[in-house]
Each structure stands twice: as C-alpha cells, then as structure tokens.
Amino acid sequence: MILLAGHRDPVNHLAFAPDSMTLASAGDDGCIWLWDPAKGEGKVRLSWGANYVFCAAWSPDGQAIAAGTQDSLLLLRADSAGWRPVQRWKLHQGWVTCASFSPDGQMLVSGGVDGVVHLWDAIRVSKKPLMTFTGGLGSIRSVKFSPDGHAIAAGGTAGVGIWKASEPEPVLFNRLRDADVRSLAFAPDGRQVVAAAGRCVLSIDSLTHRGTEVLHAAANYFRCLAFVADGSMLALGCDDGSVRLWDVPSSEERCVLGGTMSCVGAIAASPDGKWIAASCDDFVIRVWDLQRALSDEVL
Questions:
Q1: How far apart are CA 170 and CA 191, in angstroms?
Q2: Which of 107, 194, 119 is nearest to 163 (CA)?
Q3: Cβ neighbours, 10 Å, residue 262
Q4: Per-residue pLDDT reduced to its tens digit, 187-242
Q5: Cα separation of 164 and 122, whole Å?
Q6: What residue ranges of the chain have pLDDT lower than 70?
C-alpha cells in the first residue's frame, strides 16, 4: 500500500487520468494535488484561491480538469506553462459538488447542492449552459455520462435520475427510501448504472430502468464506488474504513482492503486496472496495486 500525504484537510474526490499515470485529488484545503501513483509522490499542487474543492474530473485527452468549488465550476487546461484556469461558470447556487466530461470531450456536466444539473460546452466554453436538468433529487452528489455519451445519470440526497443528454425531461426518477446517493457510475458497457446509496448498492438496468438492490448494510454504510477496468469488479468505499472488492458476475466479495482506516469518503480505480485509490478522514490517500491485493484474502 502506498500513502500519499499533502492535503491539510479532508479529501473530497479522487480521479485517475485517462492514461492511469496521474491521480488527481480535490480537498477541503482549496487545492488539487496531482500524484504519481507509481512513484508514490506528488507531481504538482494546483491552487487558485478556492476555499474548497469538491471534485476534479479529467477530460478524455487528459489535457483539461473540471473542478467544483464552493461557488463555481472551473475549467483548467494544461499548456507549456502548466495548468491554468480558462473558464469559470457561476450559475450554480452554492457548492458545485460533481462534474463529468462526455466521452468525446465536447461536453461537461456539473451538479451542485442546489439540486440542479447543468450541461456545458467544454470546447467553446460559452457562459450559458447547453441544457439544465432538474428532477427533485435534492443536493446532487454524483453525476456521470454514459460510455456512449447519450445519457447522463445523477445521484442526490433523494435518489437517482437518468436523462438523455439531448432532452431536459428525465427518463428515470427513482426516489429511494432513506436515500443518500453519494456516488454512482455507469458500467463500462453502459448496460447498468450502479449507485452507492448508503444502506444499499443499487443497480439500474440502462434499458429497462429497473432497479435492484444488490447489496445491503446498515444506514450510510456504502459511501462511494468505482468500476474496476472492464467492469467485472466494483470497488466499494465503506463507513467502517474498508475498501471492498466485489465481483459483479458472481455477486461475491473478492477481498477487503484496509479495515483500520476512518470512513472512506472517495474512491477511484485507474483505467488500466492497476491501481485502487481511497481517501479517508485523516487527509491521507491510500493506493493499492490491484493484482497484489487480489493475491491476498485480506490486506
């Protein structure tokens, strides 16, 4: 296990770059760290005056990062001088908690505590959104594009919604009892949306929109999740400090990482399937080599 220490406050979000060589972390200290997981060290610390950074999303080409702060959505681009802000959108009322690029990098979607999801032009960076989605989901915690770019899923304090990227009316609104969806993801093949909804992990069929609770636990136990590589496994971050690797085809747990950490608040899996990263309340990011982790029953 590799420990990455640099944030001075809790880490809110983790995201691997498309080439899996860089891990971005966004924190309550108002900065984004870019880490080299292989070397176990920080590459650069990005700071531009934000008080809090709630999310960091990579563009498909790895040359842009969307960051959600306490009052805006910021677009950063890489050039010869490093990373610099090129656009700031301030349409959300309050914290911008999540963001996601479309697979072709043309669009960017954001969600906030105002319960609104905005769709932006990530190339022309116009100040007005292309579209705005509302669905009564409460504060939005997670938002994702489908792998084909045709759909958008959002999870909030009241449930899960799915929209066509071209239409403002939801095709699915699933209000959950005792819901607090903090994290969701499309499977790599786009056939399902999986959400960490506190007391359960919910799987929604992308075609039929039928939802099935595939895992159950105490209230607020499942905090975050990420599909691993080809989608055959889910990495689940839990309230007891563990990271659980769950085999999707067999519906069985493969192994448990950690177990002695504080609550896992964010999790990420590298696109190449090599790394799993998790952040906890102690401000430290933990990174595991997945193949080495699977060789042991419990680490």
A1: 18
A2: 119
A3: 16
A4: 999 999 999 998 999 999 999 999 999 999 998 899 999 999 899 999 999 999 99
A5: 18
A6: 177-179, 259-260, 297-299
Q: How many beta carbons lie within 10 A of that of residue 47, not counting itself?
A: 11
Three-class SS of residue 292?
helix
Contacts of 116 (CB under 8 A, 6+ apart): 92, 93, 132, 133, 134, 140
Please answer whether residues 123 and 141 qualify as being in contact, where contact means their C-beta atoms are separated by less than 8 angstroms.
no
Give residue 191's region: left, alpha or beta (phi > 0; psi -120 to 50).
Answer: alpha
The size of the chain, in residues, is 299
Count CB-CB contacts under 10 A for residue 86: 12
Residue type, 55: C
Query: What is the rounded distance in angstroms from the CA atom of residue 28 to the CA atom of residue 164?
Result: 32
DSSP annotation of 298: B
What span, in angstroms and rounded, lies between the C-alpha atoms of 40 and 175? 41
Which two tokens mark 186? 């499309």
Say which DSSP state 291 is in. Answer: H
Which residue type occupies 129? P
Question: DSSP secondary structure string, 105-127?
Answer: SSEEEEEETTSEEEEEETTT--S
In the prediction, which pLDDT does 294 show?
A: 85
CA distance 47 to 37: 20
Q: Give the dihedral of Cα atoms 231, 219, 139, 193; nearest 10 deg.
A: 20
Q: For 294, list phi and psi in degrees, rounded to 5.
A: -70, -15
| The pLDDT value given to residue 259 | 58
Residue 128 one-letter amino acid: K
Distances (CA, A) of 145 to 11, 102, 186, 242, 247: 23, 6, 8, 27, 23
